[in-house]
Amino acid sequence: MSGTRFARFTGRTALVTGGGSGIGRAVALAFAAEGARVVVAGRGRTALDETVALAAAAGGEALALVADVTRAGDVDALVRETVARFGSLDVAVNNAGIFRGAGPVADVPEEDWQTLLDVNVTGVFLALRAEIRQMRSQPGGGTIVNVSSNLGPHKQARGLTAYGASKAAVSALTRGAALDHIADGVRINAVSPGPSDTAMSLRPGESPADRAARMKELSPLGRVSSTEEVAQAVLYLASDAAASVVGTDLVIDGGAVL
Ligand SMILES: NC(=O)c1ccc[n+]([C@@H]2O[C@H](COP(=O)([O-])OP(=O)(O)OC[C@H]3O[C@@H](n4cnc5c(N)ncnc54)[C@H](OP(=O)(O)O)[C@@H]3O)[C@@H](O)[C@H]2O)c1
Fold first, then answer.
1. Which leading EC class covers this enzyme (predicted)?
2. CA dist 68 → 153, 166, 200 (Å)
């Protein structure tokens, strides 16, 4: 691809769940810009197609596959289809996630709790399982980056306990799976973003300008992280430069207090 400073992923296939928006889209475009064949997955076809079009417009190669990460059949088919199309699965980024269940624990509806666990925890487990099974069976193995959060594994804040608990599980899955499978040639790590430039970090009714003012006051860095900044951390962990980085959880939160 012209105008690229590095092309660390030429000839490799990268799968990004939740690749139709936000951090996942930035990750997908960053991999495509560095030569990877990218598969973006999620539930909404239109958003995925937009990411594919953006990658193509920048000279990259991407494919959209509809899949719900809470369904084992979808996730297994996603990995199968990726390999059928591109020959291998070298990099996977388990980024699909949701925010629900704000409020003190006593007021969190069971339905919100269950949905959080289904998407943020079971979704990552099912994806890890399918990806590892593929990667350990192919020459060269593979590498996986899970998208966790600063909230839960690293910090806690009032009213965000349910989401934080789901993300603490993602970080625990990352560390455990990394130890289980490094000897199989599968290297697993996580990134833990703080408030980032997507709709997820907006409070109810808050505009991006309101959020910027809140960040100026609350965040030591004074702003949210851009999705590109999070993407570059993911690419580092997936790159050969991180070959001895196993089971780490890289916090990207501008020193955020929450
Ligand atoms: N933004 C932040 O401040 C922040 C901070 C810390 C951590 N994170 C984490 O970063 C990740 C990306 O978040 P974001 O801010 O980029 O939000 P986002 O734009 O809402 O992205 C989430 C993506 O996940 C997909 N998704 C949701 N449920 C799914 C399911 N069941 N199956 C497949 N895909 C599903 C969504 O697509 P569909 O709805 O079309 O399926 C969407 O593309 C999440 O794991 C989030 O928890 C974000």
1. oxidoreductase
2. 25, 18, 19
Question: Which amino acid belongs to residue 44?
Answer: G
> CA nearest 135: which of 69, 196, 181, 200?
181
Collapsing DSSP states into helix, strand and coil, what is residue 257?
coil
Query: In whole angstroms, what is the distance from residue 77 CA to residue 89 CA?
Result: 13
* Residue tagged 């959060």 (tokens): 149
Q: Name the CATH topology of 13-249.
A: Rossmann fold (3.40.50)
The residue count for the chain: 258
Most informative mutation of 43, 54, 156 for ligand 1 (most atoms within 8 A of CB): 43
Residue 251 Cβ inside 6 Å of ligand 1? The answer reads no
As a whole number of angstroms, the distance between CA 107 and CA 129 comes to 33
From the list 160, 144, 171, 165, the residue with the least C-alpha distance to 251 is 171
- Residues 39 and 88: their CA atoms lie apart, in Å, by 12
User: What secondary structure letter does DSSP report for 253?
Assistant: S
Could you read off the pLDDT of 97-130 as tens digits, one per residue?
Answer: 999 999 999 999 999 999 999 999 999 999 999 9
Does ligand 1 have an atom closer than 6 angstroms to the CB of 96?
Answer: yes
